[in-house]
Every structure is written in structure tokens, then in C-alpha cells.
Amino acid sequence: MNLYEAMFLFDPTFAVSFENCEAEIKRIMDRAEGETVFLRKWEERRLAYKLKGRKRGVYVLVYFNAPAGKITGLERDAMLSENILRVLVLRADGMTPELMEKAAAPRVVEPEGGDEYGGRGDGRGDRDRGDRGDRRGPRSFDREPVGASRGPRPSGGEEPVPDVSNE
Predict the structure, then answer these.
(1) DSSP state of 106
(2) Terminus-to-terminus CA distance in the chain, angstroms?
(3) Is 59 helix (H, G, I), strand (E, B) or coil?
(4) Where do the H-state alpha helices sit in 32-109?
(5) I need a labelling partner for 25 at 20 to 30 A (CA). Which of 6, 77, 99, 129 fits?
(6) What is the mean pLDDT of residues 136-148?
(7) What is the distance between the alpha carbons of residues 116 and 31, in angstroms, rounded to a whole number?
(8) For residue 51, what is the domain's CATH number?
(9) CA 132, CA 116: separation in Å to the nearest integer?
(10) Structural domain includes residue 65
(11) Per the structure, how many domains does the chain have?
(12) Model confidence over 7-65: pLDDT tens digits?
């Protein structure tokens, strides 16, 4: 039997009581002949896009031992469940109980700046736009007309100008 890590994404209406999630995971593990080693509710979050019509989901992290041949059946059972929106199963060789606790710890993401727009305080986020004056090049009304003189030419080795008059 191998050690696996699974992240289940539950429907939040089903996961109001965490015991429901535990019972569903136990049902799936029993069918896959798996043994749960570690089970923890991770967090409820807003999803980037709708899954099965849901905008939010409850993440549950599970470490378990199971035969390698039973993982596809476990994934199939999870996807057929109406209460589980998604599941991801990975092999977790070398995971110790301390590492499992650390992986299940809640993640706190703090903004780098002092406000919700990235710390600048002006509502433009963290993108520094800098001075844009010299990057565009000369504007059309700053240019000299075509054929205009740009000042004296460098001296040295001047060539005689041919006379083109019709004399």
C-alpha cells in the first residue's frame, strides 16, 4: 500500500457540518480499501469559476494509504458523488506526520503594502508606471520638417560643389 495525498472540494451546502464530509470520505475510502491517516478541513473559499453551479467550495485535505490499483476507482467514485465538486489525488512518498500537519496549516496571505490596492495608496495597484515622457520618442509636432537643416555639417575634407547652372 502506498501513501497518497488527496484534496477534496466539497459543495458548501453539504459541508456545513464537517461530519458530512468525513462520512463521505470514509465511504469512498472503504470502497477503495483505503485507510485514512490524516484528515483536516482546509478552508472554504470563493472559486475562480463556477463548478457544478457553485461559486464557493470547502477544501478538505486527506492523507491515506491505499493499493495503487484502487486509486482510479476512488477518483471515479469521488467524481460521481453529487457532494464532491473536484478531487485531486497525488502520491505522497516520504510524508511524515509533522509534514502533514504543516501542509494542513491554514495559509495566511497578507498584502505587501498598506492598503488593498498593493500599498501605493492611490488605487493603481503595485504596478510602477514610471516617467513615460522619453519612452515614446518625439511627437509629430516636435519633429523638424523633412529636408530642414539640422545645423552645420562637420568640417573637414569638404568637396567642391559642382556648378549646375546653364551658362
Answers:
(1) P
(2) 108
(3) strand
(4) 71-80, 97-104
(5) 99
(6) 61
(7) 46
(8) 3.30.70.60
(9) 26
(10) yes
(11) 1
(12) 999 999 998 889 999 999 999 999 999 999 999 998 899 999 998 899 999 999 999 99
Share in percent of the chain as helix, strand, coil (round to 5):
25, 30, 50
Any residues with CB less than 8 A from the CB of 124 and at least 6 apart, and which?
A: 117, 118
Residues 6+ apart with CB under 8 A from 93: 2, 3
- Burial call 90-103: b when 16+ CB within 10 Å, e when fewer: eebeebeeeebeee
Classify residue 35: in a domain, yes or no: yes
Phi, psi of 39 (to 5 degrees): -140, 125
- The pTM of this model reads 0.61
pLDDT at residue 149, rounded to an integer: 60
Average pLDDT, stretch 84-93?
A: 92
What burial class does residue 41 get, using C-beta atoms within 10 Å of its C-beta: 0-12 exposed, 13-18 middle, 19+ buried? Answer: middle
Instruction: Extract the C-alpha cell encoding 75.
Output: 477518483
Please, which residues have CB within 8 angstroms of residue 5's CB and are 6 or more apart in sequence? Answer: 61, 62, 63, 89, 90, 91, 92, 95, 103
| Host domain of residue 38 | 2-104
Which helix (H) or strand (E) covers residue 3, if one does?
A: strand 2-10
Instruction: Determine the pLDDT at residue 11.
Output: 92
Q: Which grid coordinates belong to 84?
A: 464532491
